[in-house]
From TrEMBL:
Upper classification of the organism: Bacteria, Pseudomonadati, Acidobacteriota, Terriglobia, Terriglobales
Coiled-coil region(s): none
SUPFAM superfamilies: Actin-like ATPase domain, Winged helix' DNA-binding domain
Superkingdom per UniProt: Bacteria
The family this protein is said to belong to: Belongs to the ROK (NagC/XylR) family.
InterPro entries: ATPase_NBD, ROK, ROK_cs, WH-like_DNA-bd_sf, WH_DNA-bd_sf
Family annotation (Pfam families): HTH_24, ROK
Protein name per Swiss-Prot or TrEMBL: ROK family protein
Organism: Terriglobus aquaticus
Length: 421
């Protein structure tokens, strides 16, 4: 029978191939679902269910994921061999076989660091995000000395946990990192450019070292530990000596070309403003960071003496008018800068991490009032503090290791990078 003009049989092979190529060009996010990719996605799904529902049995995993019991058992055995999970004792049930429960392996640990210009806070963290030990290491300006100080601190922490296995090292930095090479791309407040930080630390410690921007690390932490359930469009601002941002767009973490997406802190808001660490004039960061608040306080007091943010917040809580005015000025600039964030991304929520969280009860009403002035709609994003700034950044460094090492599908680009290096 002759095929009708509009029937599938009438479509030539060349036309079908051309249509397929067009669809790939039009939908750049489409990825062919190979059997290997399907296995990787299922593996990540199983690990995520174990993390969020532990302790959990294989039967329950099959029920919650919709996967075949044989598939679940195969993946569970793989995760056990890789040491991400462990089995506990069988649980007594009214009838049938006694199921064996699985949990994340709390004997598998990570070394993490939150690096600042003058010091690094180091810690040992387990897979559940629990902190087992911690120490603060002063840092010299030169990257060689700073890396050696961090390595020495890590060695001391690792020696304090004999018999444990360390999966890797996660480092949170106030700058941008190329996700393909682990190289620092932009780090205005640290003199670490053109120095192979991850390579040197890996050589000394014998562990894989993952470096990530502090804001991205914090956002990964919120994702990994389940604090963003139900939210798909989120911006996280890390505000300490600088101002960095991380973007979750339609449920995907966006890093952009060379990992530079989200650099709202280096958008010029006043061309006549103070010079920024990036070399430009009047960036949002120079008006909204901790250094800005310290500068405002010094200007009001008429002196150039250095004051820490902890001291400045303490003075404000004691009703020091100059301190309160300095923090208010910083928060007003944070809130006004959010107008660009809202207009360009329309997030459901904006999270705050870093030193800004240490005085959130003072900051949030001011930031929220300024943010609302520039809204394009009646309702704006929820403004949420991540809590303890220091712990959030350290937990973020741990989440980077978990994300890149445990997630086959989620971290495929990183695995490809390592394979080719």
């Amino acid at each position: 029978m002759k095929a009708k003009k509009n029937s599938p049989q009438a479509t030539s092979v060349a036309e079908r191939e051309a249509r397929g190529k067009r669809s790939v060009r039009e939908f750049a996010w489409v990825e062919a679902a190979s059997s290997e990719l399907t296995r990787d996605i299922n593996r990540d799904l199983i690990l995520e269910q174990i993390r969020s529902r532990q302790p959990i049995s294989r039967v329950a995993l099959a029920r919650h994921t919709g996967l075949q019991p044989s598939t679940v058992s195969s993946i569970v055995e793989q995760l056990k061999q890789e040491r991400w999970i462990k089995e506990g004792p069988a649980v007594q049930t009214p009838r049938g076989r006694r199921p064996t429960m699985v949990t994340l392996n709390d004997d598998l640990l990570m070394l993490v660091a939150d690096v600042r210009p003058s010091q690094a806070v180091l810690a040992v963290v387990d897979l559940n995000g629990r902190f087992l030990s911690r120490r603060v290491v002063p840092l010299p300006t030169a990257p060689e000395g700073a890396v050696m100080a961090i390595a020495s601190g890590f060695q001391a922490l690792r020696d304090g946990h004999p018999g444990k296995v360390f999966e890797g090292v996660g480092i949170s930095v106030p700058g941008r990192v190329n996700p393909e090479t682990n190289a620092l791309m932009l780090i205005p407040n640290l003199n670490w450019m053109n120095y192979d930080v991850s390579g040197k630390l890996s050589e000394i410690l014998g562990l894989t070292v993952e470096i990530e921007n502090d804001a991205n690390a914090c956002l990964l932490s919120e994702l990994w530990f389940g604090n963003l359930d139900g939210l798909r469009n989120v911006v996280l601002l890390a505000i300490s000596e600088g101002l960095g941002a991380a973007l979750l767009v339609e449920g995907r973490l966006v890093s952009g070309s060379n990992g530079l997406a989200g650099e709202f802190g280096h958008v010029t808001v006043d061309a006549d403003g103070p010079k920024c660490g990036c070399g430009k004039q009047g960036c949002w960061e120079v008006f909204a960071s901790s250094q800005a608040a310290q500068r405002y306080y010094a200007e009001q007091r008429g002196h150039t003496g250095k004051i820490s943010m902890r001291e400045l917040v303490s003075l404000a809580l004691d009703d020091d008018e100059a301190a309160k005015a300095a923090l208010r000025q910083q928060c007003e600039h944070i809130g006004s800068g959010l107008r660009v964030v809202n207009a360009s991304l329309a997030p459901e929520a904006i999270l705050f991490a870093g030193e800004i969280t240490t005085f959130w009860s003072l900051a949030s009403p001011i930031i929220e009032a300024e943010c609302k002035r520039g809204l394009l709609a009646e309702t704006g994003p929820r403004l949420i503090s991540t809590g303890d700034g220091e712990l959030a950044l350290l937990r973020g460094a741990a989440a980077v290791v978990l994300h890149r090492h445990s997630g086959y599908y989620r971290a495929s680009s990183v695995r490809n990078r390592k394979a080719s290096s």
